[in-house]
Write a structure and sequence with these properties.
7 strands, Transcription Regulator spoIIAA, alpha/beta, five-stranded mixed beta sheet
Length: about 130
């Protein structure tokens, strides 16, 4: 039997916390992801979350509402903004939800370059991901 339970890869490069979710997320998996993101960001004074949803990712309706709440809570932990790459259907659903919620400092775009430039602006760190 296939395992559809939500899974996420989280890593930090400079002041960007990368979040790569896949599979199906319920409220429980969203809470676990939130805790892991905050743990990864803990040593940082300021940081940006860059979410790159896998094509397999899905969210239950309660999980989507919980995701919005988690994003709002990140701002009280040094997060300067939320960036979401919207190249999948699920990511576009997240984008629509975040637009309806009018979440400040949340940018959803289908260009990774645009998102990286936004991260640099929010962090005031030009060239953060260039060599």
């Amino acid at each position: 039997m296939a395992n559809w339970r939500g899974k996420v890869r989280i890593f930090v490069h400079d002041n960007i916390v990368f979040d790569i979710p896949s599979r199906l997320f319920t409220e429980k998996e969203i809470e676990q992801c939130r805790a892991r993101v905050l743990e990864a960001a803990e040593p940082l004074n300021k940081w940006v979350l860059l979410s790159i949803p896998d094509e397999s990712v899905g969210l239950t309706p309660p999980a989507l509402a919980n995701l919005e709440d988690c994003y709002k809570r990140f701002f009280s932990h040094g997060c300067k903004g939320i960036l979401i790459l919207t190249q999948t259907a699920s990511a576009k659903i997240i984008k629509h939800h975040m637009q309806q919620a009018k979440l400040d400092n949340c940018v959803c775009h289908n260009s990774i370059e645009t998102l990286i430039q936004q991260a640099e602006d929010w962090l005031d760190m030009p060239g953060i991901l260039t060599e």
